[in-house]
Amino acid sequence: DVRLSRRLASVRPSATGAITDTARRMKAEGKPVISLSAGELDFDTPAHIQQAAIDGIQNGQTRYTNVGGTQQLKAAIARKFQRDNDLHYADAEIIASTGAKQILFNALLATIDAGDEAIMVAPYWVSYSEMVRIADGEPIVITPDATSGFKLTPDLLAQAITPNTRWLILNSPCNPSGSLYSADELRALAAVLRHHPRVLVMADDIYEEIVFDGEFASFAQAAPDMKDRTLTINGVSKAYAMTGWRLGYAGGPRWLIGALELLQSQSTSNPSSVTQVAAAAALDGPQEFLDTWRARLRVRRDLALGILADAAPLLTLQTPAAAFYLYADCSATLGMKTPQGAVISSDIDLATYLLEHGGVAVVPGTAFGLAPYIRLAYALSDTDLKAACEQIVAACKRLV
Ligand code: PLP
């Protein structure tokens, strides 16, 4: 009989995908939907980056490149790590891939055997747990207190480490909570890891540029003695509004980068040559526009928080320090009834109700391993954001 592999049986489809699909269907049917579900900026890729890609195409940069990225791109990545993170990586310690997603996936595939564990912190980005499962490993989920900003503490980390632990996956700024670890907090985690030399650290820094309060620090920057077992992951998707271009990169120990390159060479080969030209222009080019973007996003964050305050206590929110998401506690809506008579018994029910009867797409916290919450991505126009938040408040007030 035709069948799927056992490997796939353990993998859950993305809950973010399901909501996006319903929203798309509603739009196709002519029903107005404002989406707060997409994890991307609504800004255009800056003109100088677009132009670099156009020039690249016209200059013939349209062929296979080195698997792990061109010399030009690797040099730009090395300069970025040095400039922004005080991290020195040689060429053989750098890889460029088709999105940070490919790096995460290949790193887990390259290092995890059946029974190995990867620690992640809830709420966590949806793909971490499923990637670990695809690699035959076991996701170990730590759920810190919401009152400590959803952040992992040294105690919780120490309790979670077992002889099977292979990875600690850290994501600061965090999607979806928006929390940001200070350098001191990272150092405190490093102090625990020093007792467990076989545990690797995945530092997913993809939201590095989107910080409003506090200062970003990369893990290996905060704890330099951890550098030889840290994979520092970043990309151009979130920083430069380049999600569709698909370019992520990482710095790490040679043996690991070599393994990633081996996997990549036998699967997808180099990331798009044209995208590499654009990414090098993004990393080497002017960075000042990021200040404008941050300022605009901060206005939106505060606009959304201001409007959603009216939905309290049905929705309760903290002010996130970074990234472009709000993670709203919706526990007070559980057990309430919609005007249509349906009982809200989970955050999935609430998200479905907000979509079908409020015209707003959000992602249920269940997808991120911490319920009952909803995640609202606020990187959309002020007008749409205002309307969406008002519709959410109105829909919440219709619950009885
Ligand atoms: N890591 C986190 C925390 C993300 O939110 C995302 C995208 O949503 C990624 C990684 C993947 O980014 P990329 O577009 O580089 O694959």
TrEMBL record:
Superkingdom per UniProt: Bacteria
SUPFAM superfamilies cross-referenced by the UniProt entry: PLP-dependent transferases (SSF53383)
Keyword ATP-binding: no
GO molecular-function terms, A-Z: pyridoxal phosphate binding; transaminase activity
Cofactor(s) named in the record: pyridoxal 5'-phosphate
Matches recorded under Pfam families: Aminotran_1_2 (PF00155)
PROSITE patterns from the UniProt entry: AA_TRANSFER_CLASS_1
Keywords: Aminotransferase, Pyridoxal phosphate, Transferase
GO biological process: amino acid metabolic process
UniProt-listed Enzyme Commission number(s): 2.6.1.-
Residue span, Aminotransferase class I/classII large domain: 32-392
Keyword Repeat appears in the UniProt entry: no
Similarity remark: Belongs to the class-I pyridoxal-phosphate-dependent aminotransferase family.
Protein's UniProt name: Aminotransferase
Species this chain originates from: Pigmentiphaga aceris
Lineage: Bacteria, Pseudomonadati, Pseudomonadota, Betaproteobacteria, Burkholderiales
